[in-house]
Specification:
The protein is mainly alpha-helical and about 500 residues long. The protein has 21 helices and 2 strands. Strand 1 and strand 2 form a beta hairpin.
């Protein structure tokens, strides 16, 4: 649950630097002799170096732990203090805060939309976004990721929707609200994707043109050509000409010529923290008034993380308050205890290897469990509780029964889709071999794929099991309680019969 804050908090230290003339991730720091930039930063990029070395101070692998990163830990503590202050008085104070945390990111996104469309190369990103790739659509992993994204954005399977809905009036029109929320969620996803790909297209175009410029300079120096003989627009034509005219001299460029390809720049797969903190930050530093855009961007990230945390923490606190033992504790004290426990549980993510554990939780602690829990919810409501009983409940609350569309989705389409995705996930996991993660190699200045060690694989198994074990364990407990109650009833009935 505190994973988002562990990463957000670590990078928030950069926000204070955005008022300076140069962003802290815009240039490489000097080496110890102050004679040039650090070699690791030169091998990578300034943004990558700042994120992995300055912000995270990341270890070479998950097996090496250098202790808690003080900066991240303090930001993590601040994040939980802010969360506590927002939920200190319960759902009333939380609801007021959510109005702001949910609406302000739209303002920032709209500003970024206008700015994004004015950036050079933005149209390349938009075209790439709306160009379908059949090989990706045929890949089951794409649909698993899409379903997981919907679960995350809507809050399905987390309990936050149920927790907030429990405070509604009995006759609240939740059918209309469900439709509105779904439409807004889908619209927001498309809207934010357009903004993202516009900025991503700008970054890819800048990288592509920088590659062409480096190639142009290399050709000019190698063949002693005049400055205006080669331009960015005719680099490829001149390469063919020079290769034909001077084959021996051109052969000496083997290994030096870069493969400049805009499609490759656009298709670079980046997600998670890499997209949020490296790709976006790298694009921002190339914008005019980069300090302003940086402040807006990281404030938006902070509010998005805060909004998610408020929903998640409410999903934990609301059912716990139903226990009689805990109901006598005041909101201030009880909410403080919950936040403090979550703070302690999340401190592990602020270590130098914490980002690797974050990735593990992100990859294996949510997708499998969300698919399983939502599938169980649909099956329970449709086939165990029964659609007819569910219809009567809805009619009692809304005054009318749900139409045929809802019943088809609940009883047929949704369970089948979820079962298919669940099976695909299990098959992909089995066929995938040993789980891997991306580790930062400071000697190469880039991330490289590494296999999880034995303890990491064991922990992944524990994550997968523990996240779904509550369902069969609760079912077993209820079964045993009912069986025990039935036996007592039989014994009581036998005693009464003998006495009579």
């Amino acid at each position: 649950m505190p994973l988002d804050w562990g990463t957000y908090g670590g990078f928030l230290t950069s926000v204070k630097c955005t008022v300076e003339s140069v962003l802290p991730w815009a240039a490489c720091p000097l080496n110890a002799n102050r004679t040039g930039p650090l070699e690791e930063c030169e091998r990578a990029t300034p943004t990558q170096y700042f994120f992995y070395r300055e912000t995270l101070n990341i270890s070479p692998s998950i097996e090496e732990n250098g202790g808690i990163h003080t900066g991240q830990a303090l930001c993590f503590l601040l994040a939980w203090v802010i969360t506590y202050l927002f939920i200190v008085r319960g759902v009333k104070s939380t609801g007021k805060v959510v109005y702001f945390t949910a609406t302000f990111p739209y303002v920032v996104l709209f500003i970024y939309l206008i700015r994004g469309f004015t950036l050079h190369g933005a149209i390349n990103g938009i075209k790439y976004m709306f160009t379908p790739k059949m090989e990706e659509l045929a890949n089951p992993t794409t649909w698993i990721n899409a379903a997981t994204q919907i679960f995350f954005s809507l809050g399905l399977g987390f309990g936050s929707l149920i927790a907030f809905a429990s405070y509604n009036q009995y006759h609240n029109n939740f059918e209309r609200q469900a439709i509105i929320v779904s439409l807004i969620n889908s619209g927001t996803s498309i809207f934010s994707s357009v903004v993202t790909f516009a900025i991503y297209g700008f970054k890819a175009t800048v990288n592509y043109e920088n590659c062409l410029e480096r190639t142009r300079i290399l050709l000019l120096n190698t063949f002693s050509l005049s400055e205006d003989s080669i331009t960015i627009d005719n680099v490829f034509e001149r390469i063919v000409e020079l290769n034909t005219t001077y084959p021996e001299q051109f052969a000496e460029l083997n290994g030096k010529l870069e493969d400049c390809n805009l499609e490759s720049e656009l298709s670079t797969a980046v997600e998670g923290t890499g997209l949020a903190f490296i790709v976006y930050s790298e694009a921002i530093k190339n914008m005019p008034l980069s300090q302003l855009w940086s402040v807006l961007y990281f404030i938006m990230l902070l509010l998005l993380g805060m909004g998610s945390m408020l929903g998640n923490i409410t999903a934990i606190i609301t059912p716990l308050r139903d226990f009689k033992v805990l109901s006598c504790i005041s909101n201030e004290v009880f909410n403080g205890i919950v936040c403090f426990i979550c703070l302690l549980l999340g401190l592990g993510f602020t270590t130098t290897s914490g980002n690797y554990w974050f990735t593990m939780f992100n990859d294996y602690g949510a997708t499998f469990s969300l698919l399983f829990i939502v599938l169980i919810e649909v099956i329970t409501v449709s086939y165990i509780y029964g659609i007819k009983r569910f219809e009567k409940d809805i009619e009692d609350m809304l005054g009318h029964r749900p139409n045929w569309y809802w019943k088809i989705m609940w009883a047929g389409v949704s369970p089948l889709l979820l079962i298919g995705l669940f099976l695909f996930y299990i098959i992909n996991y089995i066929q995938g071999g040993t789980p891997t993660y991306q580790a930062w190699n400071k000697d190469l200045g880039k991330s490289e794929q590494m296999e999880y060690p034995v303890f990491g694989q064991a922990f992944i198994g524990l994550l997968l099991v523990s996240s779904v074990s509550c369902v069969p364990l609760t079912a077993l407990y209820v079964f045993c309680q009912r069986r025990k109650h039935a036996q007592r009833h039989m014994q009581q009935h036998t005693v009464n019969t003998v006495a009579a």
